[in-house]
């Protein structure tokens, strides 16, 4: 059980960071990463708009609804089934606002995808930046790891005088901080904030 990849997508759908987080992470070339980032951004936006609304006669308003979608990965002929948890302020799957949503601020779109032996978890900030983490099934507490990475981004990348918003992140301090966080979590040491 471990972390595979981290990618960060800006509010216009451009990939601003991608990095493997473990030795078992599949090798993906840069062009495919750019496609993955923009495709995820598009699917996230579509899911926020096309998700089902809460029906007035629903007897289980807090019940999570899971939808199975089929999509093509990287223009291959292989299709996989995935479970997607879509969340919106009008959705059946949303319960009440919690600390994750207060910190992140955006609760529309894809939050989690499970399928093909991978879990994909997304945290969208109030400014529209999406932090996406992929991990092996059974990896614990992906939400808090994403929040911690968001804090590291705020502390390291945004305070770098040479970093421009919406541009690729080339901040060594951020990279070292993320690597340290992942190493600490995988060694079972200190828990994230």
Automatic annotation (TrEMBL):
Primary subcellular site in the record, as a coarse category: endoplasmic reticulum
Subcellular location, record wording: Endoplasmic reticulum; Golgi apparatus, cis-Golgi network; Golgi apparatus
GO BP field: endoplasmic reticulum to Golgi vesicle-mediated transport
Entry's Gene Ontology cellular component terms: endoplasmic reticulum; Golgi apparatus; TRAPP complex
This protein's UniProt keywords: Endoplasmic reticulum, ER-Golgi transport, Golgi apparatus, Transport
Domain of life, source organism: Eukaryota
Family: Belongs to the TRAPP small subunits family. TRAPPC4 subfamily.
Complexes and interactors: Part of the multisubunit transport protein particle (TRAPP) complex.
Protein name in UniProt: Trafficking protein particle complex subunit
Native species: Skeletonema marinoi
């Amino acid at each position: 059980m471990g972390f595979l990849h981290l990618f960060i997508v800006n509010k216009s759908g451009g990939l601003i960071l991608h990095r493997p987080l473990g030795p078992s992470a599949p090798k993906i070339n840069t062009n495919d990463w750019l496609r993955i980032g923009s495709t995820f951004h598009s699917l996230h936006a579509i899911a926020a708009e096309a998700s089902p609304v809460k029906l007035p006669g629903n007897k289980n308003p807090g019940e999570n609804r899971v939808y199975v979608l089929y999509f093509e990965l990287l223009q291959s002929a292989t299709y996989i089934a995935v479970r997607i948890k879509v969340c919106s302020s009008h959705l059946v799957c949303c319960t009440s606002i919690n600390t994750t949503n207060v910190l992140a601020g955006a609760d529309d779109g894809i939050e989690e995808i499970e399928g093909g032996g991978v879990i994909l978890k997304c945290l969208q900030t109030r400014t529209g930046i999406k932090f996406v983490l992929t991990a092996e099934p059974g990896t614990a507490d992906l939400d808090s790891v994403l929040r911690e990475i968001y804090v590291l981004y705020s502390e390291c990348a945004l305070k770098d005088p040479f970093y421009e918003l919406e541009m690729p992140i080339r901040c060594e301090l951020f990279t070292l901080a993320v690597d340290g966080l992942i190493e600490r979590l995988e060694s079972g040491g200190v828990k994230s904030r």
